[in-house]
Amino acid sequence: HVPEKLEYRVAFVDSWQSPRMVKPATIATPSKCVIHACRKDTIIESIPATNPDPVDVCGAGDQVLATLGVMLAEGNGFFEAARVANIAAGLKCAKHGTTPVSRSELDDALRAILVAG
Q: How far apart are CA 16 and CA 86, in angstroms?
């Protein structure tokens, strides 16, 4: 069950046509340490932060939402999109200010993860 007392920045997604997504689904970012991928009021997956020592968390939630939107628009499933959005947020947290993560930076990070296995 999603704890009620945490402050959440939430993206509610209810109209995507991806067959791999169970609707409705929610992303919650209650802290710099984790994001939650939820269905209705239940946390389905807690995804730990990929950057345990952030330089600046300003703009990380925006990066999550932007990456989630792009991933869903490209036809990816909700939970896969949430995992990639979490990686993008970790990359953003290595930067000062609200400098966004580019697609090529994210692609390089995903390739490195695949290679590392």
A: 20
Q: Residue 8 carries which side chain, given as an amino acid letter?
A: Y
pTM of structure = 0.75
Which of 14, 62, 107, 108 is labelled catalytic?
62
Q: Which amino acid is at 55?
A: V
Q: Known catalytic residue: 14? A: no
Q: What is the pLDDT of residue 17?
A: 45
Structure tokens at 105: 């930076």
C-alpha pair distances (Å), 41 with each of 3, 19, 22, 27, 36: 9, 21, 13, 11, 11
Task: Say if residues 63 and 105 touch (Cβ distance below 8 Å).
Answer: no
| Non-local CB neighbours of 116 within 8 Å, separated by 6+ positions | none
